[in-house]
Every structure is written in C-alpha cells, then in structure tokens.
Design the sequence.
C-alpha cells in the first residue's frame, strides 16, 4: 500500500546532541579502519588525518582542536529520518526498507562540546516503479542558531 | 605550500570491509539495525549474512576525497545513491576525478566498485572548499 501523501510536511524533532570528544575520535578511527578492543583503537590507520584524533596535532593545525569527520553528522542528523520510519501513523514496512540516497551539506566544522539541534520533516512521498520513496529533509543548528549540517535522506520501500 | 588542483586530476582509495566492520561501525555510529549485525536477519533480507551500513560506504567516499585534499574539515557536500550493498570480505575501490575547480570549491565525482567490478554507489559527488 502506498504511503499516504498527506504526511508530506510532517515534522520531527527537535533532537539535541552534544558532541563528545571520545565519541568523535572513536567514529573517525573506526570509519578509518581501526580495530577496536577494550580501551584502545589500536594503531591509527595511516590515511586517517591526525586532525580527527590527536589533540596535539590538531592544536597545531587550522582548527585548534580535533574536529569531527564530516559524516559523523549522521550520528545525530539521522534522528528525524529514523523517527519518520518508526512513525506508526505513516506505516513504513521496515523489513522492505533500504536506504536509497543520501545528501549532506556541511556549513561548518563540528567540534567537541558543540551542542547541536536537529529538526526535520517529510518533504516528499511518491511511488515510482512499484516502490515507495520517503524523503526527509533535516537541518542541524549549533547553540548560536547557525546552520551546521543539512541533510536529504531517501528511503526506498520495496514491494512485498 | 598551497597545492593546486586541476580538472581531470584523479585519485584512488581502497578499503576493505573486514568481517566485523559492520559491527564496529554499528558501535561507532549507533546504527544497530539488525541487518548489519545479525546474520540471520541478513539472510531473511535475501543476503548471505549481514551487509555494511550504506552510510559507512558514504563515509569512505568522503574519506577518499578528504585524503586527496589533505584536510577532512574542508568537505562541504556529499551526495550518493546506494546501488548495491557492501558485504563483509568485500574490497571497495574508490576512484575520484576532479570535475570542477571554481569559486574556491573543488568538485569531484567518485565511483565505488567492489572486487567483482560492481558499483556500490552511483552518482557520488563530493565537494570541498579549497582553502
């Protein structure tokens, strides 16, 4: 059954997230290929920028402190998308859902201690080639209200 | 030393999806969807077992460009379509090509293919600032 287009415009959030230094480091190193074990990430893979995990190196660099790897944004910016998928009134069949497309725009770097608030809403619901498409657009702002990340999240619900 | 970039410049970045990478990425990202950590759920979905989070593949495409420009803080935009899941034990080769250098911004198109030559991303574009 097609998703009801009356849900276009439905909003989710705000969701607030505070960036923790160690979480940010963990994300960068694990995405970069590190193997985690108790209390250590092992040797940082060579291609991972020290700006992402070494406070010492980062202090000498352009940002003065470690920064988030850009796609760390998905950790918090995904929340309106997840909320839409889980919305019982919308009725998404999660077993048939795949993540179809993703766009992220970064308007500034993200640093430890940033308190970020994400809101989002359903911007498109349509059916194409027998599949349902659910598009959620998100905006994340910092504590000063400045936009930091914008996202466009597209889920595809395959036919039964 | 300012590095210059030109349209047509290319780069390659190779990443292994080791057997436990979906589990590691689940912990780091909070994406605990069972299709990424429970092989039985992966089988129910029509795969041999778990599949890697698409957002991890997106992250690797961003990483390929971040390594190329030498600064992850310069990435401004990424857009991808997920065309095929990455599976544990897959090797993904990212090949980037600079398509525009204008207005302080570098645009790159990135292809990502598994070891069978099948694309796992389509239409991947990553933009960075130049300074």
Sequence:
């Amino acid at each position: 059954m097609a998703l009801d287009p009356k849900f276009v415009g439905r909003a989710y959030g705000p969701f607030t997230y505070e960036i923790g230094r160690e979480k940010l480091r963990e994300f960068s190193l694990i995405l970069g290929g590190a193997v985690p074990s108790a209390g250590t990430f092992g040797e940082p893979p060579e291609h991972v920028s020290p700006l992402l995990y070494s406070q010492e190196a980062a202090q000498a660099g352009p940002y003065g402190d470690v920064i988030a790897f850009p796609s760390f944004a998905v950790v918090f910016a995904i929340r309106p998308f997840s909320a839409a998928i889980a919305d019982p009134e919308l009725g998404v069949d999660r077993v048939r859902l795949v993540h179809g497309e993703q766009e992220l725009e970064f308007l500034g770097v993200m640093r430890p201690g940033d308190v970020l608030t994400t809101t989002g809403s359903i911007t498109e619901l349509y059916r194409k080639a027998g599949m349902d498409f659910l598009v959620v657009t998100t905006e994340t702002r910092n504590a000063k209200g400045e936009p930091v990340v914008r996202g466009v999240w597209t889920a595809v619900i395959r036919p039964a | 030393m300012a590095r210059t970039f030109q349209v047509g410049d290319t780069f390659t970045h190779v990443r292994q999806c080791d057997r436990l990478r979906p589990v590691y990425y689940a912990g780091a990202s909070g994406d605990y969807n069972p299709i990424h950590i429970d092989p039985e759920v992966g089988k129910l979905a029509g795969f041999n077992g778990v599949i890697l989070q698409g957002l991890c593949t997106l992250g690797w495409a961003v990483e390929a460009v971040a390594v190329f420009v030498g600064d992850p803080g310069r990435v401004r935009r990424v857009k991808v379509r997920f065309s095929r899941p990455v599976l544990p034990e897959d090797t993904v080769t990212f090949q980037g090509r600079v398509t525009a250098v204008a207005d302080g911004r570098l645009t790159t198109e990135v292809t990502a293919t598994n070891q069978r030559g099948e694309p796992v991303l389509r239409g991947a574009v990553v933009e960075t600032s130049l300074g």
